């Protein structure tokens, strides 16, 4: 039996809606679509996600990272803000939704864990830098004349004569309201206050800078016709968004579930996020995901069930006809909203931590960051390179084995350190042969396995052969402290050689 929403759900849903409306406008433009499509992405997708969601706190809608991935996927297919681009965005959302639903139904939720932490740190940091760079010309109201994201940001920064003082004031005021509001109280609607104040100031002062412009009113219009001819070129980007874009909502849901001691299912969450994207496709929106900031706000506002997300979507749906009132809103305000929102994605502290504790993983994170920046706007290429670097790092670690050697009378003790398998045992064999040649008085060898991280069947077989060859040459080999986690067959091999 479905229980009715609590007062906390209603309060949380309406509170998040007040924040989601201005954020949605900003994320739509970041994705290369007219601002009103951000509201489409916040309405029906949030309602559908709530019906299938596993986490009771997860708020679904447009998010900065997925918006940037969308822009990267679509920028080569059509000109942003055109009808062809809008149609492709809806198709992309449909493909992302289908991929996530399929993964959930196939119970492949475990793929959510395939992206290693260093890859995600490097990618999200690179994406956040690109998002910030893309918004700099907007907050300065500088015309970058079709330059790329990074080139446009650099050009805008070094040409202060092109800045609009009024736009900068709007951006700084918006950022201050959001940041200070958070410190005053988690529920302070800084984004909404900034939007209302900016609208009022724009009308009263006759602001002549860049604004949101005319917005189409009316109700949500469903889209049933899609440019299927472009589907082939969007399949790979859709798969990338389906996987990479799922990492954030999965992390949010896992964190809240652990804190509340509630169960969580990655398979079910895949289905909920898939249904949300299918809804985004037929709503004429773009790919959506889970928002950390809005989910945290919902939880702090007292949400107790997925009803909060559904109420957020319904509230935005009701607000859509009033969007023409937002026409005078300065674009600099939306740029500031995005920049403040993505600031938490720049994880330089984590990268420094990796550098201090694991240079190999730090190299993976740094390489992914650099690849993401260089691959812009095709960010999925940066992710693919990051995954490749992570695999190479794993192989390097698997191939790295050392051994300490100690001579005790006529007995040689070797202690391997690392993972032993058929490709790394030869290094131990060479070390053994070298020391036997250097110390002809040795009559027995002990291989202390206490520092071996993992030993598989093939590694044990190779060690057994090494022991047999040494014994045939008059120096028996004895294995001690064989790790309990090794395979039964490996243990049999080694015990037969002791």
Topology, please?
Layout: H1 7-30, H2 36-42, H3 44-52, E1 60-61, H4 64-74, H5 83-105, H6 117-140, H7 149-157, H8 165-184, H9 190-205, H10 231-260, H11 266-282, E2 289-290, H12 292-300, H13 307-319, H14 331-342, H15 348-357, H16 359-375, H17 379-399, E3 401-408, E4 411-420, H18 425-438, E5 444-448, E6 452-455, H19 457-472, E7 477-480, H20 488-497
Parallel strand pairs: 4-5, 4-6, 5-7
Antiparallel strand pairs: 1-2, 3-4
Helix pairs in contact: 1-2, 1-9, 1-12, 1-13, 1-14, 3-11, 3-13, 4-10, 5-10, 5-11, 6-7, 6-14, 6-15, 6-16, 6-17, 8-9, 8-14, 10-11, 15-16, 16-17, 19-20
Q: Determine the fraction of residues in helical runs and give it as a percent range.
A: 55-70%
The end-to-end span amounts to 64 Å
Which stretches are low in confidence, meaning pLDDT under 50 for 5 or more residues running? Answer: none
Coarse morphology: elongated
Summarize the structure.
This protein is an alpha/beta fold.
What does this structure look like?
This protein has 498 residues and is α/β, with parallel strands linked by helices. The chain is 63% helix and 7% strand. It is built from 20 helices and seven strands. It has helices at residues 7-30, 36-42, 44-52, 64-74, 83-105, 117-140, 149-157, 165-184, 190-205, 231-260, 266-282, 292-300, 307-319, 331-342, 348-357, 359-375, 379-399, 425-438, 457-472, 488-497, and strands at 60-61, 289-290, 401-408, 411-420, 444-448, 452-455, 477-480. The N and C termini lie far apart (64 Å).
């Amino acid at each position: 039996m479905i229980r009715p929403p609590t007062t906390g759900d209603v309060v949380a849903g309406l509170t998040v809606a007040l924040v989601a409306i201005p954020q949605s406008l900003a994320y739509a433009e970041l994705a290369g679509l007219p601002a009103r499509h951000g509201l489409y992405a916040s309405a029906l997708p949030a309602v559908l996600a709530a019906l299938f969601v596993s986490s009771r706190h997860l708020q679904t809608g447009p998010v900065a990272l997925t918006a940037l991935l969308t822009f990267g996927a679509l920028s080569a297919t059509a000109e942003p803000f055109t009808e062809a681009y809008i149609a492709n965005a809806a198709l992309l959302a449909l493909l992302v939704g289908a991929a996530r639903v399929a993964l959930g139904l196939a119970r492949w939720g475990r793929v959510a864990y395939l992206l290693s932490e260093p890859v995600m740190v490097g990618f999200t940091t690179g994406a956040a830098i690109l998002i910030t760079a893309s918004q700099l010309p907007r907050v300065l109201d500088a015309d970058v004349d079709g330059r790329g994201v990074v080139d446009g940001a650099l050009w805008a920064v070094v040409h202060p004569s092109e800045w609009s003082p009024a736009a900068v004031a709007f951006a700084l005021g918006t950022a201050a309201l959001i940041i200070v509001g958070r410190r005053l109280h988690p529920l302070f609607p800084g984004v909404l206050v900034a939007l209302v104040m900016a609208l009022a100031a724009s009308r009263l002062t006759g602001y002549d800078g860049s604004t949101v412009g005319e917005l189409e009113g009316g109700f949500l219009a469903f889209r049933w016709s899609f440019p299927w001819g472009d589907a082939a070129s969007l399949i790979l980007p859709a798969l990338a968004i389906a996987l990479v874009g799922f990492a954030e909502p999965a992390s949010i849901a896992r964190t809240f579930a652990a804190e509340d001691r509630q169960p969580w299912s990655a398979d079910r969450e895949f289905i909920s996020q898939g249904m949300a994207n299918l809804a985004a496709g037929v709503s004429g929106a773009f790919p959506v995901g889970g928002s950390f900031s809005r989910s945290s706000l919902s939880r702090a506002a007292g949400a107790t069930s997925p009803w909060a997300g559904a109420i957020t979507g319904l509230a935005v749906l009701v607000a859509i006809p009033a969007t023409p009132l937002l026409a005078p809103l300065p674009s600099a305000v939306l740029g500031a909203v995005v920049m403040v929102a993505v600031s938490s994605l720049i994880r330089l502290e984590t990268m420094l931590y990796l550098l201090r504790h694991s240079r190999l993983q730090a190299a993976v994170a740094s390489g992914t960051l650099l690849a993401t920046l260089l691959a812009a706007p095709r960010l999925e290429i940066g992710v693919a390179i990051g995954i490749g670097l992570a695999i190479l790092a794993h192989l390097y670690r698997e191939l790295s084995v050392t051994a300490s050697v100690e001579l005790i009378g006529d007995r040689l003790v070797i202690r391997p350190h690392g993972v032993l398998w058929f490709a790394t045992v030869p290094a131990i064999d060479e070390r053994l042969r070298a020391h036997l040649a250097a110390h002809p008085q040795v009559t027995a060898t002990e291989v202390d396995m206490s520092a071996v991280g993992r030993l598989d069947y093939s590694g044990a077989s190779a060690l057994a052969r090494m022991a047999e060859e040494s014994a045939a040459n008059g120096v028996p080999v004895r294995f001690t402290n064989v790790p309990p986690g090794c395979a039964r067959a490996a243990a049999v091999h080694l015990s037969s050689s002791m």
